[in-house]
Design goal:
The chain starts with a helix and ends in a 17-residue tail after the last strand. The strands form 2 sheets. Strands 1, 2, 3, 4, 7 and 8 form a 6-stranded mixed β-sheet that branches. Helix content is about 20%, strand content about 35%. The longest helix has 15 residues. By secondary structure, it is an alpha/beta fold. The chain contains 3 helices and 8 strands; from the N terminus they run αββββββαβαβ. The chain has one domain.
Length: about 150
Amino acid sequence: MTKPMCHEISGNDAVLIFDDSVEEKKYTDSSDLIEWHFDHTVGRSVKGVNFLTALYHNNDMSLPIGVEYVKKDRRAINKKGKLIRISSVTKNELFRNMLKQACYNIHFKYVLADSWFSSAANINFVKQTCNNDFIFALKDNRKVALIPSLNIK
């Protein structure tokens, strides 16, 4: 349903914006969906729903085109010997899956995201699989090559 509207507003400068959020649910019982996640806006872990959204933007118009929820559907033992929940699909894998779907369905020039998604695997995916450019925030401990390369390591 969103695809026709994206085509109506598409253009050479369209961007696809990714962001992750945590909706706090501190009084709800834990489950695969509601669990402890680090929330960078408050600088600590909070109990809630962690989700990734994709927003298509061009010509002062924005359309939501996707949402994926981080489900901690596996159990593991942490370093302290405590049983914890972990996700079988990482947030970066969700990002690449959503981006791949968007690449097949809509036209955009850039992928925008924060530093959480600025890994070499994601950058290579944007450039090589989707043939798009990107604008990602970088953490200060990242190294950047200022010459073209076939593969970013």
